[in-house]
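step 4 of 6: structure.
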Amino acid sequence: MLKVTEKQDWLKFLLIILVVLFAGLAQNAAAMTDEDCLDCHTDPDLTVEIDGKTVQLIVDGEKYMGSVHADNSCVSCHEEADVDEAPHPYPMARVDCANCHDDIAEIFASSLHGQAIEKNDPYAPKCTDCHGKHDVLSMQDKNSPTYILNVPFTCGRCHQEGSPMTLTHDIPKKNILKNFSMSIHGEGLYRKGLTVTAVCTSCHTAHNVLPHIDPKSTISRLNVVKTCMKCHANIEEAHTKIVRGELWETEPHKVPACVECHGPHQARRVLYEDSLNDQFCLKCHGNPDLKLIMANGEEKSLFVNVEAFEHSIHKDKRIACAKCHVNVDHQKKPVCRDSGKVDCSICHAQVVDLYNKSTHGILTAKGDNNAPVCSDCHGTHGIMSKSNSESPIFARNIPELCASCHREGQKAALRYTGSQHDIIKHYQMSIHGRGLSQSGLMVSASCTNCHTAHSMLPASNPESSVHRNNIMKACAQCHLGIAEKFSSSIHSPAVSKTDKKLPVCNDCHTSHTISRHDTAGFRGLILDECGTCHEHETDTYFETYHGKVSMLSGGEKTAKCSDCHGSHDILPAYYSESNLNRRHVVETCKKCHPGSNRKFTGYLTHATHHDRDKYPYLYYTFWGMTGLLVGTFAFFGIHTLFWLPRSFRERFKRRREHSRENILKKDDWS
Amino acid sequence: MEKSQVEYVQRFTIFPRFLHFLVIISFLTLAVTGMALKFAAERWAEIVASFFGSFEVLGALHRFMAVVTFTYFALNFVLMYQNWRKSGKSMLQFVLHKDSMIPNLNDAKELMQTFKWFFGMGPQPEYGRWTYWEKFDFMAVFWGVAVIGSTGLALWFPEQFTLVIPGYWINIATIIHSDEALLASGFIFTIHFFNTHLRPEKFPMDPVIFTGTMPLDELMHERPREYAELVAAGKLEDIKVPPTPRWFFVVSHVFGFTALAIGLALVVSIIYSMIFLYVK
């Protein structure tokens, strides 16, 4: 602060010295004072003849004395008039404002107006046309033609529709003044007296007016945002839902410029229709026969089905054609030529970001033709909300949508090398699939509930929603209660600090063939699932009644691992909360054995008679019984073995006896 | 023509034949349903279970036939009581009599003589009404029903049994029940079948347990001592009976062969499973 003050003081000091010096000089060199000039130039009879017209040369002294140049003296502009004795030479050179305002003059010279002067355009405005001559007033002065409230009138002197200038020049916009006055800006200016509102010069600048096709122009497509943002500084915040913060600056070609939605002179809150309106597009694209013949000779229909669009979510949200097809250019014929593909990230930046990181997005980035892009799932002009039952992304339609590529034999399934096959068929038979498609249970999980809609990645990818480490989060979206239970079970990494692989949801429930836990199919698989890790326990289970019966028809009804150990809340018996803990085990058995008692629970459900150290009673009983068996069979085996040849001999002997007796009998009769 | 000239004697009255019928029906059912559980991992076991519907049907049949077993077990005592009363002997005399079902010294002697005969070191013993192997079969059923029956009850009513015995005794009972059953079925379907039906002299089956009658000739040859005693006592004419009606003879054979086939099929399955159970 101090420094600035010092500097200002220093500048003031310099100014005073200069003024004194110049004043002295003027006193000595210029004899002609303003009074001298006005002596003559207030006389109405002071006239000259120009092109046969008599022109008065009077200067309104009062106005001059009120102008910003009052202290400069006449001769500072009319240098040639600075003579010792009147009259000064005539004619004199035109006053050149650039003598003092050289910087502005330079800018002006390259502007549209400046160029017009260069071309001797009779309608080209000169400094004085806007600022006045002797009565130049500060733009703060309410009487100044450059005062903000007066700017539209000043400009309108030439740009008013029907003025000679507009009739002789090709100005792309029509009814500029009228439109402006009805726009939000004009309304603010005239009806609200809002002096901060935008007038012509706010956007076009005062001196550097350039056509919008000039890239240097403040209203060119590339700069118009910056121009609007002089006042609408937070406009990106206001459009944050549809435009990433930096997009307007870094990639202006990607997004529609302000004026494409908010017509330049008709700026209203929403006035898309008045800018490049849909009707304009549909004039051509509403024709079912509209085709593009591509370089390779293929035909591509350019027909836009209005009826489909009528039901689209973009219609509801009043998204105009130009909002997506941003690269339309008024200079081109037709305006949409080579406008390229629609980039959904213009509005859906976050979603596209997710998509780009997904397998689908990665493949698309590689140029893989198989990879789906936004429109493959969402459609194009007929895009519908996911809550619309007709939409391909309506929950109940999603399995069919994904199936179009992932069904066995389809393009995604063909290139898939993992172990999950027939996923669509399996899913449709699963509890989730049947819930969704048969019962119409809309909370039932479809593909996207687990795999996400836009971030799908293979399960092997740690970022994937279905990766081992994340799968519980995916399931917990719906099965929160179970996830909470599981988190306090021995299988949870929060409880078991181990290097061993702990099971996650799909290890037991599978991924796509998920069924109810009480179905025979699921119960029949429990042993396999637990057995993957608990092999010994499963083996010994199969040696006891529960296990043996479970292998026979209807065996799904007998106790499986989870019936005794619990399922999601499983804990070893030494935890007091465990189903198998002393406190609970009688109750646990009671679920099937109503007469369960303390001693009853002593039944060894994982007993084996092959383990002498653990189960000596069983071991010795088994071998005792085996001894009895072997002994009995050994004795009678030998007995039989030796009897066999004797028995044969007996049989033959008796047959011989019989035949002899018969012969004798026959002899008797004979 | 030939057949009508053959003289028949009665060996079994209707009551023991009925008891043996109960034994066959219950034993086969128990063996099939029980072995399907014991060898549950085998494919044939699943076929059996599917044939009956589900393991619950197997269990229900098994328990029903257990009741039948306990019934014939009890009826057998009735039969023996009747025989005792008929014999007019004291209880001790009846039990120790050489024709009683209880093995005695004479059976040991005949066993030795039989082995000598096997090796050609002597003549075949003069068997009486009951040979030693027949007595063994009878006693084995006695023993078997007691052991398998008692352990089976414990498995049937574990909740009640464990009010008294420790839980792990149920595991022990399982081993005893199942291995004793393996012994019993193994024995019946091989040794008993051979001794009684399949040995060349009897092949393919001896229908006497169904018909109750046997040719007099067979009695003379196979049980010479009994025959001699009957002749001496002059009772031979008393037991002579007309031949079994043809239809009953056929029915007996159909039933007998069915039982034999089931038993043999089961024992083959068991042996096959036992080999692969321990080989794998």
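step 5 of 6: annotate
 - Chain A is about 45% helix and 0% strand.
 - The first strand of chain A starts at residue 47 and ends at 50.
step 6 of 6: archive
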